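FAQ: What does the model actually see?

It sees only this:
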Amino acid sequence: MLVGKYQNSIDTKSRMIVPAKFRDELGHKCVVSKALDKCLEIHPMSEWERFMEKLSKLPSADPKARQLARHFYASAVECEIDKQGRLTLPQELRQYAKIEKDLVTIGSYEKIEVWSKEEWESSEITAELDPSQLAESMMRYDF
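And it is asked to produce this:
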């Protein structure tokens, strides 16, 4: 299970250090892709395969389904984690997520989200729900 929040940065070769707590679940290979929000997702290979299976079952006659699948297929990059626990973030993906130097890495159960620090700190993303909104959301999603 991938959970927690970590702050780090990328080096001059566009490498980020994958938090040690995440490395065991990722193994040596993973997939980095665009997320739905303006961040990146890092998927363990097994989770990526399950995700691709779901995408492959979308109705090909539906233009929105094809667009959704393309969003993930086109942006996906298979990456290796080196012996120092670093992962190279491709330039196109860094530009999408507006990652220049500092980043925030968030465990999101079966995947990892990578945010530019500036985007993460924007009020829209980190705004906390008040207790009544939180309770309402939990009820809506059957918690």
